[in-house]
Write a structure and sequence with these properties.
The protein is an alpha+beta fold and about 120 residues long. Helix content is about 15%, strand content about 30%. The chain has a single domain, classed as Jelly Rolls, CATH 2.60.120.10. It has a four-stranded antiparallel beta sheet with strand order 1-2-7-4, covered by helices on one side. A two-stranded antiparallel ribbon has the order 3-8.
Amino acid sequence: MAFKVRGADTDQAIAVLEDTVQPGYGAPHFHLHENETFYVVAGEFTFTMGERTVPKGQLHTFQNVGTTPGRLLAVVWPAVAFEGFVAEVGTSWPPSVPPDLEKLLAAAEKYGIAVPPPEPGGA
């Protein structure tokens, strides 16, 4: 992930990140403190809520369904909690392969991002 606009530049109103997403990767989650919207720059993605803004508190996910890395621009508002989450888990997404789920879940809880538990037999 690379920040294009940081909350400090917008009085914490928004943050804009560019995310390179590997094929097959997705991240089901919901935000308790911020809203989020996506713009697909490159690749093929599916979204559980369609191509519209997903309000905070709603479970949503994205998944790269293509065969090459794809790129997304993510806009979150307000910016402060999500920026703290990214600072703790890192800008490589997923943070490690396989991801350190304990670290990821602890940071998610701290910053108001809920991640459902993995399905049995799933990653």
